[in-house]
Design brief:
- There is one protein chain.
- By secondary structure, the protein is α/β, with parallel strands linked by helices.
- The protein has 16 helices and 15 strands.
- The protein has 2 domains: 129 residues, Aspartate Aminotransferase, domain 1; 278 residues, Type I PLP-dependent aspartate aminotransferase-like (Major domain) (Aspartate Aminotransferase, domain 2, 3-Layer(aba) Sandwich).
- Bound molecules: 4'-deoxy-4'-aminopyridoxal-5'-phosphate (PMP).
- It holds the Pfam family Aminotran_3.
Length: 451
C-alpha cells in the first residue's frame, strides 16, 4: 500500500511498460546502491539481482575499474562529437577492441549509437543503403522471427514479433515480415527439436521465395530469443539460416544485444552456433550498462560498399545516419574497462558453468512442482514458464501467478523478473553457485506458496 512519503515515486514519471495505478498502489523499490550481484534499496534491504539490471550489468555492480575509467575520461573531456572530422580515443580504441573480439565472426568496423534499439535501427538503415549502393534498390524488406525482440523505435519495433509490443503502434513500417520461431514448448508441428529447426528454416525459405529474393535485404534474429521468453533454437537452426541467406543473397543480422560478451557461455552468441553473421548489434553488456551505448558491427562485405576509395568530403557512399551521442567517450571508456574485466576474469566461461548448474537445480525443482511447464536456457539466460497443472495450459492471466511468485522472491531478497507467467533469469556473470542455491531455494518456496 502506498504511504504519503512514497506515493510521489509514481506521480511524475511515466514508467516504461507499467500500469500507473499498479505502481501508485505498489510503489517501486528505490535502488540506492549496488555491489557485485547485490543491490540495496533505500531501506537498507539487500537483494540478489537476478536480472543484472535489465540483463546488462554483466560484470556486476559498482566495479571500481569502470568507475575509475569513467572518472579519468571525465577529467579529460566529457563529450565531443565524432561527426564532421573530430573523434576521441576511447571510441577509436573501443572500435578496434570490438573488431578484435569479433574477429572469428569477421567484423571489421563498428558504428556507434546509444542503445539496443538504435543499434538495430542503424543495422536496418545500413542494409538498405548497402543494397542501394550495390545497385539493388529493390532489396529493402527485413524478415525476422515471431517472438523476436529488437527494440522499441518504430523501425526496430517493426521487426519485433511480440504482439503486445506492436498492437498500439500499428501500422508499423511496410516491408517487415515475421516467420515462425523454432520454439519447442507447445508448438503444433513436432516434439523433435532438430526437426522443428528444419521445419522453421524451410518456412523462412518459402517466405523468401514468396516475397521474391530480389526484394529481401536482410534477416534478423537473436542467437537465443530473450524477451520472447528465452527461446533456445536447436543446433541446426542458425547454420541453416546462414545457408539460406547465402543462397538468396540476403544479409544475416545477429541481434547480440543480450547475447554479446558472454551470456551464453561464449564471447558471442553467434559463436555458440558456429555462425558468422554479416552484421551484429550490441548494447547492454558492451559496457555492463554503466553508461548508455550501442554498436552495430559489420563484416568486410558490408563495409566495403561504403568505401569510395576517393578523398571527397561528401560522398553519396557515406553512411547517411548518426546520433549526437555516437562514440560518447564516457560510454566507450566504460566499455573498454568492462570488456577488460570480462576477459581477465574469464566471465563467459563462468556464465556457462554457473548457468549449467542453475538449470540443473531448476530441473530438480521442476520435478517436484508440476506448475513448472517448461524450463529452458543457455548459460546465464534462463526461462521458466508456468502451466496450470490441472489443464497443462497457461494459467488464467487474472490469477497473476507469475507476479505473486516474483513478489514473494523480492520479499525474500531475490529479484526474479516475470513477464506474465514466464520468468526470465539473467544475473550478472560474477554469480557463484552459492548465490544460485539461495535463488533456487527462494524460488521453490515461492512456487510452493503460489500453488
Ligand atoms: N535487441 C534485443 C535482443 C534486446 O533484448 C533489446 C532490449 N531488451 C533491444 C534490442 C533494445 O535495446 P534497448 O532497450 O537498449 O533499446
Amino acid at each position: 500500500m502506498a504511504t504519503r512519503s512514497n506515493s510521489r515515486l509514481a506521480d511524475s514519471i511515466l514508467y516504461p511498460f507499467a500500469n500507473i495505478g499498479h505502481l501508485t498502489e505498489n510503489p517501486p523499490v528505490v535502488v540506492e546502491s549496488g555491489e557485485g550481484v547485490y543491490i540495496t534499496d533505500s531501506t537498507g534491504k539487500r537483494y540478489i539481482d537476478g536480472q543484472a539490471g535489465l540483463w546488462n550489468v554483466n560484470v556486476g555492480h559498482g566495479r571500481e575499474e569502470i568507475k575509475e575509467a569513467i572518472k579519468a575520461q571525465l577529467d579529460r573531456i566529457s563529450y565531443y562529437t565524432i561527426f564532421g572530422g573530430t573523434t576521441n580515443m576511447p571510441s577509436v580504441e573501443l572500435a578496434e577492441r570490438l573488431c578484435q573480439l569479433t574477429r572469428p565472426e569477421g567484423m571489421v568496423r563498428a558504428f556507434f549509437s546509444s542503445g539496443g534499439s538504435e543499434a538495430v535501427e542503424a543495422a536496418f538503415k545500413l542494409v538498405r543503403q548497402y543494397w542501394r549502393l550495390r545497385g539493388e534498390a529493390a532489396k529493402t524488406k527485413i524478415i525476422s522471427l515471431k517472438r523476436g525482440y529488437h527494440g522499441v523505435t518504430l523501425g526496430a519495433l517493426s521487426a519485433n514479433g511480440i504482439t503486445s509490443n506492436r498492437e498500439y503502434f500499428e501500422p508499423l513500417l511496410p516491408g517487415f515480415i515475421q516467420v515462425e520461431t523454432p520454439h519447442l514448448y507447445g508448438n503444433p508441428y513436432t516434439q523433435d527439436h532438430e526437426e522443428l529447426g528444419r521445419i522453421c528454416a524451410d518456412m523462412l525459405e518459402r517466405e523468401i521465395q514468396y516475397q521474391g529474393p530480389g526484394t529481401v535485404a536482410a534477416f534478423i534474429a537473436e542467437p537465443v530469443q530473450g524477451v520472447g521468453g528465452v527461446i533456445v533454437p536447436p543446433a541446426n537452426y542458425w547454420p541453416r539460416l546462414r545457408e539460406i541467406c547465402d543462397k538468396y543473397d540476403i544479409l544475416l543480422i545477429a541481434d547480440e544485444v543480450v547475447t554479446g560478451f558472454g551470456r551464453l557461455g561464449t564471447m558471442m552468441g553467434s559463436r555458440h552456433w558456429g555462425v558468422k553473421p554479416d552484421i551484429m548489434t550490441f548494447a547492454k553488456g558492451i559496457n555492463s550498462g554503466y553508461i548508455p551505448l550501442g554498436a552495430t558491427m559489420m563484416n568486410a562485405k558490408v563495409a566495403e560498399a561504403f568505401d569510395t576509395g576517393d578523398a571527397a568530403q561528401f560522398s553519396p557512399k557515406a553512411f547517411a545516419h548518426g546520433n549526437t551521442y555516437a562514440g560518447h567517450p564516457l560510454a566507450c571508456a566504460a566499455a573498454l574497462a568492462s570488456l577488460r574485466i570480462v576477459e581477465d576474469e574469464n566471465l563467459p566461461e563462468n556464465a556457462g558453468r554457473v548457468g549449467a548448474y542453475f538449470l540443473k537445480r531448476l530441473k530438480e525443482v521442476q520435478s517436484r512442482h508440476h506448475m513448472i511447464g517448461d524450463l529452458r536456457g543457455q548459460g546465464l539466460m534462463i526461462g521458466v514458464e508456468l502451466a496450470n497443472p490441472e489443464t497443462g495450459r497457461p494459467f488464467d492471466i487474472s490469477r497473476n501467478v507469475g507476479g505473486r511468485i516474483s513478489d514473494h522472491c523480492r520479499e525474500k531478497g531475490v529479484i526474479i523478473r516475470n513477464l506474465a507467467d514466464t520468468f526470465i533469469i539473467s544475473p550478472p556473470f560474477v554469480l557463484e553457485t552459492g548465490h544460485v542455491d539461495e535463488m533456487v531455494d527462494t524460488f521453490e518456496e515461492a512456487v510452493a506458496s503460489a500453488g
